[in-house]
Amino acid sequence: MSPQVPVKIILGTHTIGDVAQMPGLIHFDNEKDVQGLLDAFHSRGYRDLDTASNYPGSEARLGQTGAASRFTMHTKVRGMGNGDSEPSKIELSIKKSLEDLQTSTVDTMFLHVPDRQTPLEDTAKAMNDAYLQGRFKKWGISNFTAAEVEELIKICETKGYVKPSVYEGHYNAIVRGGEKELFPLLRKHHMAFFAYSPAAGGIFSDKTSTTARWSKDNLIGNLYSTLYGKAPVQTAVATVRDSAAKHGISGHAAALRWTAFHSILDGKYGDAVLFAVSKMEQLYDTLDAIEAGPLPTDLAEAITAVYATVEGSEPPYHL
Ligand SMILES: NC(=O)c1ccc[n+]([C@@H]2O[C@H](COP(=O)([O-])OP(=O)(O)OC[C@H]3O[C@@H](n4cnc5c(N)ncnc54)[C@H](OP(=O)(O)O)[C@@H]3O)[C@@H](O)[C@H]2O)c1
Fold first, then answer.
1. Residue-range definition of the domain harbouring residue 69
2. pLDDT in tens, 113-142
3. Is there a domain that residue 31 lies in?
4. Could you list the residue ranges that cross the membrane (predicted)?
């Protein structure tokens, strides 16, 4: 069944930035290329960008091209989880993001990863303070466990702080662990879900052996190839590809369309799909795929069924 309201489509910008800092993973560095990508996305009618202070040079390049004046911006506090959600660091990170983005406020400010060294009370207070200063319209959390989400919400309720209203998490046809424990909680607290890696980082496109995104030589490639490396997952990926091919649809397009139209996501809750591209052609292909709408019913059902074969071996929805 398709969602009652279409999900929002957001362009992820981890591929925009300083190539020298992440060769092979960043593909849009100079102003002309960044502007070209954003213009093409905008001209198709889309208005949301996701970035992060962790993505080297992404916010600064978006700022240089005036992105915040024509897009709704979602960004994230700097952090790898090691004491970086301490209040003074949150404050500094938000200040720097807004400077780099050349704007006084953004739509959403996420905590990028859980910081299990800093008390959640301190983090919640820092986000509430920044909210009251008008730095963002809403705040979100990314990669937290359901238990951590619940605890954070309780703290905000007890202290009278503004609550997080969006969760950004790993979700696609193979990564569905959040459906059981996370989504009921999000729905209960009226939190939206932004699904990252809706096409599992490109694994369904059958080129993982050739791209940096899956190379064990870099941090992200190593993470994704490890997360998706188990045999049942690889078999499931091949099943999705083969089923899609019978309909003349690419594995990548089928995976994206499944996440957008046949998953637990629903625009009525404010849910979104957050994709990325490493080339302009991929932007056009991706938007064409999404705009093609729901999949043929038997293909959608075949992809939905694949999860039962990987449950327990799949990457977790949280860090
Ligand atoms: N909050 C978080 O912790 C977090 C984590 C991850 C991502 N994100 C956000 O989510 C965004 C999207 O994540 P993602 O990159 O994992 O999403 P994705 O859309 O599942 O994967 C994107 C990758 O798929 C490949 N691809 C794209 N279009 C293609 C096409 N038409 N045909 C074949 N392959 C294609 C490209 O890989 P190649 O480069 O190999 O060509 C591209 O880099 C990021 O930019 C970021 O904003 C957030």
1. 8-202+259-292
2. 999 999 999 999 999 999 999 999 999 999
3. yes
4. none
> Is 211 near ligand 1, meaning CB less than 6 Å away?
yes
Note the pLDDT tens digit of each residue in 267-277: 999 999 999 99
Tell me if 199 CB under 6 Å of ligand 1.
Answer: yes
Number of domains in the chain: 1
Q: How far is the CA of 142 from the centre of ligand 1 (A)?
A: 16
Indicate whether 34 belongs to any domain: yes
Question: What's the 3-state SS for the chain?
Answer: CCCCCCCEEEEECCCECCHHHCCCCCCECCHHHHHHHHHHHHHCCCCEEECCCCCCCHHHHHHHCCHHHCCEEEEEECCCCCCCCCHHHHHHHHHHHHHHHCCCCEEEEEECCCCCCCCHHHHHHHHHHHHHCCCEEEEEEECCCHHHHHHHHHHHHHHCCCCCCEEEEECCCCCCCHHHHHHHHHHHCCCEEEEECCCHHHHHHCCCCCCHHHCCCCHHHHHHHHHCCCHHHHHHHHHHHHHHHHCCCCHHHHHHHHHHHCCCCCHHHCCEEEECCCCHHHHHHHHHHHHCCCCCHHHHHHHHHHHHHHCCCCCCCCC
Give the residue, out of 53, 72, 278, 285, with the most ligand 1 atoms within 8 A of its beta carbon, to mutate for a pocket test.
Answer: 278
Q: CATH number for the domain including 130?
A: 3.20.20.100
In a domain, 133, yes or no: yes
Q: Is 27 in the pocket of ligand 1 (CB under 6 A)?
A: no
Q: Tell me, using a 6 A CB cutoff, whether residue 198 lines ligand 1.
A: yes
pTM: 0.98
Q: Which residue's alpha carbon is nearest to atom 27 within ligand 1?
A: 277
Q: Is 171 a catalytic residue?
A: no
Is residue 303 domain-resident? no
